[in-house]
Design brief:
This protein is of the alpha/beta class and 309 residues long. The protein has two domains: 3-212, 3-Layer(aba) Sandwich (Rossmann fold), CATH 3.40.50; 228-303, Alpha-Beta Plaits (2-Layer Sandwich), CATH 3.30.70. It is built from eleven helices and 14 strands. The strands form three sheets. It has a six-stranded mixed sheet, sandwiched between helices. A four-stranded antiparallel sheet has the order 2-1-4-5, with helices on one face. A four-stranded antiparallel sheet has the order 12-13-11-14, with helices on one face. Helix 4 crosses helix 5 (132-144). Bound molecules: adenosine-5'-diphosphate (ADP) and magnesium ion (MG). Adenosine-5'-diphosphate binds next to strand 2 and helix 1.
Length: 309
């Protein structure tokens, strides 16, 4: 696995507040890496540090194995950390000419990046006539000038309407398919689950977990209860089924909803083995549905609550 960004023991204090408390993780090349946490958990601070806008109190970070962030390196990273200022009365194309001039990029790139964000046909429209989603797509087009391999976005769908959010999510997946590594901060679980391949969950400056979205969903919680599967089952004889299941090794809990049983089980238990076991005990299941553990549930398990600081 090739690593694009590596954080090693990053700390950032604001007075007595530990905005980031000893954060270490690696961002694999080609990933869409989500930094997920409630407001105030330190996401923007983290992105500010790796983009050299803020200085860490201690710790190091490495872009492509190189310590710190040289101006050469930063040129290879497209960033969208805050809403950029576009001129409302100018067209998309003219706005990008200004951005290209500031970044020292050729105007030839403008149609290319406009095409990538699907705004080429609207290049002559005034910025003020754009929808929220189009405005944000133009902001992303601007980050694509210079064709960076790495993109860093802070809450890229903030303030957008549902249509705009969908546009930006699709665009991020598209850019990733084109080979770009995307690092994105978000407080929206659903977004990370839908868009990201990897996630680091932070809360109050502390890294709670990191891995592929799949790994984080399935990982063992910090207590000794290794819940990896949730299965809903039912049978005509619910009481009998409950009794039988209580005795099945690997079952962690059985909850009766009235019409079905929700069982939490360890990874070693497959739905077919549960089916077989019940059948051998004389109970025919009328329902057996694997319930996917959602990232939201996992997030609440990991952080204990969803309160901000
Ligand atoms: P997030 O982006 O996850 O919402 P931030 O990185 O913006 O979180 O903030 C993390 C914590 O650091 C918050 O408690 C915030 O109030 C605090 N903080 C951020 N910037 C400053 C600053 N310049 N001075 C003091 N505290 C700050
Ligand atoms: Mg923020």
């Amino acid at each position: 696995m090739s690593v694009v960004l590596s954080l090693k023991n990053i700390k950032k204090n604001y007075g007595s507040l530990k905005a980031l408390d000893d954060i270490s993780f690696d961002v694999p090349k080609g990933s869409v890496f989500g930094i997920l946490g409630p407001n105030g958990s330190g996401k923007t601070t983290m992105l500010g540090i790796v983009m050299d806008i803020l200085k860490a109190t201690s710790g190091n970070f490495y872009w492509n194995g190189e310590q710190g962030s040289s101006s050469e390196m930063r040129k290879q990273i497209g960033t969208l950390l805050e809403t950029p200022n576009f001129y409302h009365y100018l067209s998309a194309e003219k706005n990008l000419k200004i951005a290209a001039a500031i970044k020292g990029r050729s105007y030839d790139e403008i149609p290319v990046v406009l095409k990538k964000v699907n705004l080429l046909e609207r290049k002559d429209s005034k910025f003020s006539t754009y929808s929220l989603g189009m405005k944000q797509r133009l902001a992303i087009a601007s980050t694509l000038l210079g064709s960076p391999d790495i993109l860093v976005f802070d809450e890229p769908t903030n303030g957008l309407d549902p249509a705009g959010i969908a546009e930006i999510r699709e665009l991020m997946k598209d850019l990733n398919r084109q080979g770009k590594t995307i690092i994105m901060a978000s407080h929206i679980l659903d977004e990370v689950e839908k868009v990201c391949t990897h996630v680091a969950i932070i809360q109050k400056g502390v890294l709670k977990t990191v891995g592929t979205v799949q790994e984080v969903l399935n990982a063992a919680p910090t207590d000794n209860k290794v819940v990896t599967l949730e299965i809903e089952v039912s049978a005509d004889n619910i009481a009998g089924l409950e009794e039988v299941l209580q005795q099945l090794p690997g079952i962690l809990s059985v909850t009766n909803t009235g019409s079905s049983l929700i069982i939490e089980s360890a990874e070693t238990l497959s739905s077919s083995s549960i089916n077989k076991y019940c059948f051998e005990k004389g109970i025919v299941l009328s329902q057996l549905a694997l319930k996917k553990k959602t990232l939201e549930k996992r997030f609440l398990e990991i952080t204990g609550d969803k309160s901000d600081r």
